[in-house]
Specification:
3 helices; Ubiquitin-like (UB roll); about 100 residues; alpha+beta; about 20% strand
């Protein structure tokens, strides 16, 4: 199972096991990462699962599509590496990915 490292706004770190095929958002919810509220349930219609992908991983995750980019306009603390965690599917290639959770989420 792939591992995801979440770095929370207070700098605490939580490493969790993910299920391949689940989204990063679902993995966060399943592992009590309270900072990811996922209000829309993963439908790419809110920004409550906003995360920032670590620089070393952004090329493996790829860029947001047009719909995701439009939703991100409602997020706070958006950076070049910002993504909606509901739109990133976990694969073995993402084993070890580092995901930062901004303080505003």
């Amino acid at each position: 199972m792939p591992n995801i490292t979440f770095i929370l706004a207070d700098e605490s770190v939580k490493v969790v096991e993910a299920i391949e095929g689940d989204s990063i958002m679902q993995t966060a919810v399943d592992n009590d990462i309270e900072e990811i509220t996922a209000s829309c349930g993963g439908n790419c219609s809110c920004a409550t699962c906003h995360c920032i992908i670590d620089d070393t991983w952004i090329s493996k995750v790829g860029a947001a599509d047009e719909d995701e980019t439009a939703v991100m306009e409602s997020a706070i603390e958006v950076t070049a590496n910002s993504r909606l965690s509901c739109q990133i599917k976990v694969t073995d290639a993402l084993d070890g990915i580092v995901v930062h959770i901004p303080s505003s989420e």
